[in-house]
Design a protein that fits this description.
Layout (H helix, E strand, L loop, with lengths): L6 H6 L12 H13 L5 H9 L16 H10 L2 H17 L13 E12 L8 E5 L2 E14 L7
Antiparallel strand pairs: 1-3, 2-3
Helix pairs in contact: 2-4
């Protein structure tokens, strides 16, 4: 992340609309990035990890990390175009380094999986419906997961 893609340097160059901020934009975004990589489910969980110094080995000694309120305030006003440029640079560098050879990432096929709820109704239902009680009414629905291959995908024989 640091030596090849220079993510930390690029994050530190990001701007936002805060006046006299206590933390640089990069300092605020890095815990969010780590939270994303670790699949932290909520800002409350991220805040607990920050308070428990669970990221202390990822930052230089003595680095004070922002609390979730500062993270939220920064994310509201961050330069989205700057984030898009960082993403573009990462993809470009990955292509240059031939990480994405033959539709794979280092030989692994990448897929995107997303779950969704469909055929929802508060009035109609069938025996296979899932049920989600909402107050006095029950919401009936079906759900499913969809997987899409990213890139060329596996070769069929």
């Amino acid at each position: 992340m640091r030596n090849v893609y220079h993510v930390d340097r690029r994050l530190n160059k990001l701007s936002d609309g805060r006046v006299n901020p206590t933390y640089r934009t990069g300092q605020v975004i890095l815990p969010v990035l780590f939270g994303f990589l670790l699949r932290i489910k909520s800002f409350n969980e991220l805040n607990l990890m920050i308070k428990n110094n669970e990221f202390s080995k990822l930052f230089p000694r003595g680095t004070k990390l922002p609390q979730v309120d500062a993270i939220r305030d920064t994310l509201k006003v961050i330069d989205i175009d700057g984030l898009k440029q960082i993403n573009l640079h990462i993809v470009k560098k990955a292509v240059e380094n031939k990480v994405l050879e033959n539709g794979t990432i280092d030989g692994y096929t990448v897929v995107a999986i997303d779950g969704t709820k469909f055929f929802g109704s508060n009035k109609k239902s069938c025996p296979e419906c899932l049920k989600n009680p909402k107050g006095e009414k029950t919401h009936n629905f079906h759900s499913g997961a969809v997987m899409s291959t990213v890139g060329i995908g596996p070769v069929s024989t």
